[in-house]
Amino acid sequence: MTTETPARVRFAPSPTGVMHIGGLRTALYDWFLARKTGGQFILRIEDTDRNRYDPDAEWHIKESLKWLGLDLDEGPEIGGPYAPYTQSERLQLYQDAAERLIASGDAYYDDTTPEELAALRQRQQAAGQPPGYDNRGRYRTAEQIQESRDKGLEVVVRFKVPDHGELQVEDEVRGRLKFDLSLLQDFVILKSDGFPTYHLAHVVDDYEMGITHVIRGEEWIPSCPRHVLIQRALGISTPKYVHVPLITAQDGAKLSKRHGAQSALEYRDAGYTPDAVLNYLALLGWSPGDDTEVMSRSEIASRFEIERILSHPAKFSAQKLEWMNQQHIMKADEDELAEMMMPYLERPEEEGGLLEEIDRPIDRSIVRAMVPVLRERIKVLPDVIELIDFLFVDEVQPNPEEMIGRRMDEEMVFTSLNASIQALESLETFDGEAIEQALRGLTQSTGLKAGQLFTPIRVAVTAKRIAPPLFESIEVLGRERTIERLQRGLAIFSNYAGNRDD
Ligand code: GLU
């Protein structure tokens, strides 16, 4: 049970391109706050910029949330008490709000043409002044606006910013922010196509949907006074603002692919676990208050505090993320880990999965049996493939040259393979421990050193230079298939040795 007031938080992406890490992290913080306080996590699609709208981006956002396990309480597909959750389906609300602002004198119709705006910008540039609208539309009469409409000119609605004064906004991360209103120009709230701008739409929706905390990137801080001005003019409450820090590269540069920053679905395809990505991103800009780094999602959710969001930029490190992934692989439940590995093994060969000749679905009991001895060798989930692929094929193709290890001669290879076949044939229980005991015992009877004994066996059974623990692999492979491989290895080696002697 929590003593905090349940938070209603929304993740409000604009579907205009692939969601970057900053967006994902915002979604995480929303979700953690909702789960910590027993509140609601809401997805709202902010698709009012029709020129930049991209349906693939919307799909991508929803898939990313699903993969990370950020379950929604309200949103476009599942609905909720404030549906619809897609802004293009809520236009009437914004248009009504714009009209209320016009009626109260806080906004006005403006027919300034794009050409006039361009000319204004040029003059400002030439005079070395900062670019910006000069509020000229304030003085247009209703008749002039009507004339422009009749001529087919575009008419927008602008919010009238007070000419002077200071506006203060409380930010949960940075404390009190102060803005000089004389530096702010009148801004568009409704475009000529009847669609609202972000400034108006999200303010209306956050209020209508009962949002308690607006968690968003710090790039929105300069716009924040606009939002508070709209709220005051509409007579609606201001939510709590939580502006989260930028994520940069290690050297402070703008983060990009070059630094290993990828989208959620790319991390998924590369074999990161959702819990590791979640854990890593949570720590990019938030700290639990001590040195704990590796945490489960429920642990983060229970420890999450807005007060512990940092106000300085967070530095992304691809190596740290990989390390985090390893830690989660080490900690995961064995059944779940095997389950997580399955899709990577089963995907088509050309996408990095097991060889095409191996029938799907593959035998998951093999994967499960190998998990305990494999997990510490894996950084990303697909690493498992080359460690266990030899267990799924009918035959492997051992290289006889590799059977002769260092300080070995041909005779030793024959001895190793023959002795191991015999030993395994006569074993009573065929498990890792018994196999190990039997094979190690051969060093005594054959006079071979462990390396000399095991190199030919490993190559014959796995055809690999580096393979997962041998005894467990032999157990999983089974007696019959192991002996078949040893015999085949022997034949391949005889042939090779015979040719060498000629
Ligand atoms: N649609 C805005 C964006 O994608 C949302 C910002 C906010 O959360 O208010 O950046």
What is the class of the largest domain in the CATH system? Answer: Alpha Beta
**Structural class assignment:** mainly alpha
The whole-angstrom Rg is: 32 Å
The overall pLDDT, averaged over residues, is 96
Highlighted features:
three-stranded antiparallel β-sheet, 4 domains, Helicase, Ruva Protein, domain 3, two-stranded parallel sheet, Rossmann fold, 502 residues, 47% helix, mainly alpha
Describe this structure in words.
Helix content is 47%, strand content 9%. The mean pLDDT is 96. With 502 residues, the protein is mainly α. It has four domains: 8-87 and 247-318, HUPs (Rossmann fold, 3-Layer(aba) Sandwich); 90-244, Rossmann fold (3-Layer(aba) Sandwich); 332-391, Helicase, Ruva Protein, domain 3 (Orthogonal Bundle), CATH 1.10.8; 400-501, Orthogonal Bundle (Arc Repressor Mutant, subunit A). It has helices at residues 21-37, 55-68, 91-103, 114-126, 142-150, 198-208, 224-234, 264-270, 274-283, 297-303, 318-331, 334-346, 364-374, 383-388, 400-403, 410-425, 432-446, 450-462, 470-477, 479-501, and strands at residues 8-11, 40-43, 107-110, 156-159, 166-171, 175-180, 187-190, 213-217, 240-244, 247-248, 314-315. The structure holds glutamic acid. The site of glutamic acid has 9 residues, from α6 and β8.
Briefly summarize what is shown.
With 502 residues, the protein is mainly α. It is built from 20 helices and eleven strands. The model has no long low-confidence stretch (mean pLDDT 96).
Secondary-structure blueprint:
Blueprint: E1 8-11, H1 21-37, E2 40-43, H2 55-68, H3 91-103, E3 107-110, H4 114-126, H5 142-150, E4 156-159, E5 166-171, E6 175-180, E7 187-190, H6 198-208, E8 213-217, H7 224-234, E9 240-244, E10 247-248, H8 264-270, H9 274-283, H10 297-303, E11 314-315, H11 318-331, H12 334-346, H13 364-374, H14 383-388, H15 400-403, H16 410-425, H17 432-446, H18 450-462, H19 470-477, H20 479-501
Parallel strand pairs: 1-2, 8-9, 10-11
Antiparallel strand pairs: 3-4, 4-7, 5-6
Helix pairs in contact: 1-10, 6-7, 9-11, 12-13, 13-19, 16-17, 16-18, 16-20, 17-19, 18-20
Glutamic acid (GLU) binds at residues 12-14, 46, 198, 202, 214, 216, 220.
